[in-house]
Amino acid sequence: MRPPWLRSPAYPYVSGVALVCIAASEVISTRITSATVLATLPVVVVPVVWRHRYPWLGLIVVAAALLNFLFRSELLLSVAVAGIVGMYGLARHRVMHPVLLAAAGVVGSLLVNVGHIALGVYDLGGSAPAIGSDGSLSYFTEAFVVSVAVVATVCSGDAVRSREESRREREAAQRQLIAMERRQAVEAERVAIARELHDIVAHAVSVMAVQAESATYTTPGLSPQARESFQQIAGSARSALTELRHLLNVLRKDANEEASVAPQPTLGSLDDLLETHRSTGGKVELRTEGPRPALSSSVELSVYRIVQEALTNARRHAPGACVVVDLAYRQDRVGLRILDDGPGPAGAANGTGHGLGGMRERATVLGGRLTSGPGPDGGFLIEADLPVQATPSGLADHAGEQRPPRRAPDDAREV
After folding, report:
1. Which CATH architecture has domain 266-395?
2. Model pTM?
3. How many contiguous H segments (helices) and E segments (strands) does the chain have?
4. CB atoms within 10 A of CB 401
């Protein structure tokens, strides 16, 4: 991963201007008078400023650098740096295939070397070296060094490009995996809602229907208006059950029927849940306080789901973290405290996680509350306070708290 200052939008402009200043100082300090060198030098250094926006400018930079080097064998620092930067940009942005780019650079350096020999840059005693004679290859050391630099620069640029492509592919695969997990989580939540509606709400509504229907047979002295009212209540309950069945069919549309009718977990299933978390490499400890009171089924289910979601968050956002689950039973309340020593889920502190929102909704429906955020000594903390019996906002348990219905005729039970 490149440092942040290299990824800054201002970096190419700042570094390009710095290179122009270096070139100007070299011209002044070395007192260059060659018109060709002075004409090619701006073409070498100035386009470097826009190398990120227009990578193809590297072709001009490299060609001008070789030409400048041809007419001035004392290679300027600014020309050398600009040539390497231009070649690197060409390789990284794949303006040309790496093999073709390296070959062009090697041929260019060899032509410059031959030009230096032809211009008499080397002291040959007034004669050109005979190729193949002793010591003639030493005059091509310059081409060898420049070629090595060209190949190394091209390989570096292409390696960086390959690494960035691999990183983008991994990020794309991770996004697809997260999207798939979210879809699966949504489907699982649909199944869970369907089960809860079937096991709790539908049961409570059916009890209401049976009670209203049986009241017309078991309550003596009812007026005709009262009997009609009870029948209307029973009819409304049956209509609600019908609508509820339609809703369950929608929720179960893509779900496995066997999973939809699976029994709801209770606090007795907590040990299995913790063992499952440990089997995946997680660390969890359960601590309880006080005698366990008689809890409603919806409260037991909510405690189980909150612990389940907290362990899922710990596995996903803080793998290897140790989770401590404190369950405190009081006379009319259940306290739940879940703390891990990891960094905490992304977005959890400000409540943007979908799982945390579901936890709060469960607690609120029961008449309780749930808070989440960073722990006092680090990690992530979830605290919930739930009633032993759900308040009237928990519809299923509110209906279940009514007096038991009297025995009604068999036909009245088949609702």
Report:
1. 2-Layer Sandwich (3.30)
2. 0.45
3. 14, 5
4. 13
